[in-house]
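Dear colleague,

As promised, here are the two records you asked about, laid out in our usual form so they can be pasted straight into your sheet.

NAME FIELD: protein one
SEQUENCE, THEN STRUCTURE:
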Amino acid sequence: MLDESAKVLARTRSGPSNPSRIGVEAAANSLRDAAAAALREAGAITSEVKAICAGLAGTARSEFADKMHAALAGLFPGAAIRVLTDFELALAMLPPGPALVLIAGTGSVAYGRGADGKTARAGGFGPAESDEGSAFDVGRAAMDALTCEPQFGKHDSDLSRQILRQLGCANWEEVQAKAHSNADAVFPRIFPVVAAAADAGDSLAQSLLSNAADNLANLTKNLAETLGISSAPFSLALTGGMPGRSTFFDAALGSKLRESVPQASLSALTNSPAETAARLAFELANSAQGMSS
């Protein structure tokens, strides 16, 4: 939360806010809780809020973006509202010019900007259509390997026992039943176990993460070619919950990206997504004020 001079007044956290995965009502409740905590910390009230910018996963589809916009408008009457995706927000954190962001978390998406300023994306349509190389994809692939391929010894391997322990399940039949009813509560939770096992030398875990790195690098390469920036230098940023969780995975992904997009220069996202959203809201408030004056 920023004041009228763009000074940070409060930083808060709340629960998940992806409406396509948890529903619009639950996502709106998370945003409401975060906003309420920020207002308390700043000693401000709702009517003082001039603009809101929300960078939310799951809002690439207009139906969810529109519903979240309406929910925020209801929470903050009179405020200017902007809803954008998490990957649009991440790209806004990079310097001007050709740039690409690869988000690898529960889902996966690559989003970029060409030299002409036009933007495009690859992936990010959910696990039924895309999300290749994501934590969800790794978890699903791990279950497939451990339940369908006998060479991995589904009942006896350390990796299998660690995953069952992580999920609180007695056997893989129970995991499959849970995944059938709520896949998001199962597959992404397998990734941290696979990440730790890969660093400990488990061959199946390393194979799963190598495949994920391949998929993410291909996603990046395809988008760079679409944007026409694959043969010239451009900024590339990695974000999401997967980078930094496994030394093996980070090395594999770095190697695959250097092969796939050799012209890319890795750039750090120096600001937090929340602060970037707040600064976009600050610009939105100034723009709205200028139009009304």
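NAME FIELD: protein two
SEQUENCE, THEN STRUCTURE:
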Amino acid sequence: MVQAEALLESWMRRYYFATDIDIGSSGVESLSLGELRALLGITQEELDRVLFDDSRTLGGLGLRLAIANRWAGGDFDRVMATHGSSEAIYLILNSLLRSGDEVVILDPIYQQFFSIAESIGCKMKLWQLRAERQFRPDIDQALGLIGPRTRMVIVNFPHNPTGVVLTRGEQQSLISAVAKVGAYLFWDAAFAELTYKGASRAPLLQYERAISMGTLSKAYGLPGLRVGWCVAPTEVLERCVLLRDYITLHLSPLIELIAQRAIEKADTLLDLRRRQAGTNLEILAKWVEQHRRLVEWVRPQGGVSAFLRLPGIADTQALCHQLAQDFKVLLVPGACFKHPEYVRLGFGGSTARLADGLARLSGLLETYHAQQPAATRSDSSDLPPGPATAVALHAD
């Protein structure tokens, strides 16, 4: 089984630690251990009592119960705690899919979903979010793709990178169509609690073959904990255990304690970052309005990422390389999502850094458009090598 290079991870590996300002990531501003302890009331004595013994394969009971109480109606038997959502993706897809299976998948989407399924030998059918529809999901298209041969349907709403959402009616129509053919519904709900029309929670999917997935990395500001989870039928988790026995085994008891407390007091963390995300979204909206000739977007309804089209730039890789190298600003090229004319801009971080990063991006965009022939030249190199053509401009 040969898997394609993970383009987003390769880009991040190159520039995440080599830049000063991050406006490319899809999560909120991270918390320190000291900040987290103060917010959650975790004492030094609690930390000192942690015994560095093995934990349970599906996760410690305290952590699983905390997850279940918030996202699984209290049924911890249907919960598995994982090393971030990436492990959940790997375990679920490799446990349930086989070569020749038909998979209906949202496009664009996080590459791992597509590439892992494709490497298994699945037949991929794309449910495309189209710019001409303002990226609004076309439920009728999805229903036309789902049929008797469909093994799994994979979605992530609120959507990363566009921030679009499904209505309740659309969600129910999708669930009904999947249930009719007996397929699995794999729902990435990483941003379900970060929306801009009132607080919400990850959907309690009323379907026996539904699998939902979450993480502390996106809306909670705790990516370094590497804690995710999935809620799935017990027989699905039993299959995942057989695979996990060969890789990660279990989580650390110390990580489980911190994650448990974070989930038990989730609203304390979410309220803090929701307010910041709302402020930052307004800053971004004003910036887009001021640069209408350089940038097009669909205002996100959830999450903290926006998918921006840069008119006149057919492939944004060169611009993103130069923004990182000369301006020390991280921005993700759309090629990481198979849409090279776009960029993913993350607005969940520090408000001051967002404003600074947008100002630096403005300067580079102005220069690109002043040198239009160079800007429209396509960069055919693979990610993440440097640009084939760079504009001679520096951050100083």
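A couple of things worth noting about protein two: The chain has a mean pLDDT of 90. DSSP finds 14 helices and twelve strands in the chain.

Best,
R.
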